[in-house]
Amino acid sequence: MVKTFRQREEDIVRCNRCGFCEEVCPTYKATGEEFSLARGRNRLMRQSMEGKLDLTKEPEINQHIYSCLLCGACVAACPSSVITDTMIKTARAEITRAKGQPFPIRMALRGVLANQRRLTLGAKVLRFYQRSGARWLARHIGFLNLMGSLGKAEGLLPAIPEKTLRVQLPQLLKKPMKPQHKVAYFAGCMINNFFTAVGEATLRVYQENDIEVVVPTSNCCGIPHEAYGDIEMQIKLAKENLDAFSRYEVEAIVTDCASCAHGLHSYAELLQDDPHYGPLAAQLAAKVKDASQYLVEIGFKKEMGPVNATVTYHDPCHAARGLKVKEQPREILKSIPGVKFVEMNESDWCCGGAGSYNVTHYELSRKILARKMDNFKKTGAEYLATSCPACLMQLAHGLDVYRLSGKAIHVMQILDQAYQNRAVRSKAKAG
What we know:
Blueprint: H1 9-12, H2 26-31, H3 38-49, H4 59-66, H5 73-77, H6 84-99, H7 103-113, H8 116-131, H9 134-140, H10 148-152, H11 165-172, E1 181-185, H12 189-193, H13 196-208, E2 211-214, H14 223-227, H15 231-245, E3 252-255, H16 258-265, H17 267-270, H18 277-287, E4 288-290, H19 291-298, E5 309-313, H20 317-323, H21 327-335, E6 339-341, H22 357-360, H23 362-379, E7 383-386, H24 389-401, E8 407-410, H25 411-430
Parallel strand pairs: 1-2, 1-3, 3-4, 5-6, 5-7, 7-8
């Protein structure tokens, strides 16, 4: 059963206002405002439960509830184990039930993200915008200035690929000669439509490691819907994905998107009271793995060519605190010949991407991003690696706007390059 806001009262009263969250909250560090902090937000939610405030009728309170990144840093630091991020999501669901969603958010969640064909069509429109000259025109005539936060966030868009990952699957999927493992790959929305190069690299890496990969048809994992309080659509998408993946007998369900992995893993709690989908969700959650996590567990091949570069790593929030995956991507990076790994200060601090947060809260997101870019600059690294496409987009934007030399890249892309470099070296020796 998904708890309502009122049923979370026992969770909220545990906050003793100690202030441990002050040192780890990115929005508080950027603004200095009490209500940009877990302690302050918890106070607002408690007052609402006590009838002193009404979450559904106070726009200013809504602003503080929706300015949370849901990064989970406060939860990890809290000595009283207050689950502020869960409370925030429950509060947003309460607001959504009472007021509905603003039209742009509702269209994005239900009109686009809930339908893969529409999302792919939208990506094609964006590609046309980038390639036709419309982007140049929009920037130079000042049109983007009229679009507010959305116009400012336009620079976040990566170069949209010509083909989606799913269109390329017939050419990419090759059953290994002697497969040692079999997994189902979850191709997330951003990987399929915007970061296909990451998906291609992941599939090549897995097949290089004698892993047979199947790619079921899937929809959005539901993480964006949960973040905006649309639990009804989150449950619908979860059931559709469970129907698709339950048809396959596999060792694991892997994804190269930390947010998708966290979203899939959350199905067990979301559907625990459903007599049919509850058991399926529990089985799926037990199999869900981050791409680097699974490779480390089974033992990935260490025969590689060199990638001569200094590399640092940014921990996605959903990986570090949601899945407890931190060491695995580092182990992979450190195993690559030629890689000089440098740890970045505050590597697990949120980059400010947080799904669409960098669009809806662009200015605040950029302040948070500035801290991350300063830490990256101090490493002297050439590659800023991560394992989440949303982070990848935000980090690449940071490198661009702050004019820093370096490249944002997925861990699987670096590992893929190492395997390819080994193949090139082998051919050269044979020749």
